[in-house]
Design goal:
Blueprint lengths: L17 H11 L4 H7 L2 H4 L5 H17 L3 H11 L13 H6 L1 H4 L5 H15 L14 H14 L2 H23 L6
Helix pairs in contact: 1-2, 4-10, 8-9
Length: 184
């Protein structure tokens, strides 16, 4: 990995420009203007001991939105969760998501069609949400079973929590893989 693709040191984040902090959010999560609006200022307010701590703080912000009784907060959260591409989708904008989903889009054994059907069923079961899971190298069969179980359980509160947790797990994995720039 060349150093231009690395994250800056976490201690430097508060001193970065708004655009640079937004770019960090895009690399850790997904490009998402509503997430920028929610979290860019948080990244300027304090020095986090680690990217894991930074990600946990954003997870708390997302959880606060999930717990809010406000309809606008729910819509805001849904727009952030929907920034993640559908699993198995052939056109994925972010390089990180393309790499993470590589095992899900390959092959032609009918599992891609099952994933597409389950994505649609999930979105009917949980209007406004997109299925988000930390793939972590798992193949289609495991993801399909997880998706079926979450659809069957059909608890919107638990689903929002599961999606937030998955987003933060994905972000932590990306932070580890992108590692901070070496100190000079």
């Amino acid at each position: 990995m060349d150093t231009s693709s690395r994250l800056p040191s976490v201690s430097s984040v508060p001193g970065l420009s708004t655009a640079e902090r937004a770019a960090i959010l895009d690399r850790l999560f997904e490009p998402c203007t509503p997430l920028h609006t929610l979290s860019v200022s948080l990244l300027s307010q304090k020095v986090f001991p680690s990217y894991d701590d930074l990600i946990s703080s954003i997870g708390l912000q997302l959880t606060e939105l999930a717990r809010s009784a406000s309809t606008s907060d729910s819509k805001w959260l849904e727009s952030i969760l929907a920034a993640h591409p559908r699993l198995g989708q052939s056109k994925v904008d972010s390089a990180q998501s393309r790499a993470e989903q590589a095992k899900l889009v390959s092959g032609g054994d009918g599992e891609a069609e099952v994933l597409a059907r389950l994505n649609n069923e999930y979105e009917r079961t949980f209007p406004g949400l997109r299925y988000v899971v930390f793939v972590n190298g798992r193949g289609r069969p495991e993801i399909i079973e997880d998706m079926k179980a979450r659809i069957k359980y059909s608890d919107p509160v638990a689903e929002r929590d599961a999606s937030i947790k998955a987003m933060c797990e994905i972000a932590a994995d990306r932070a580890q893989k992108l590692g901070p720039e070496p100190q000079t």
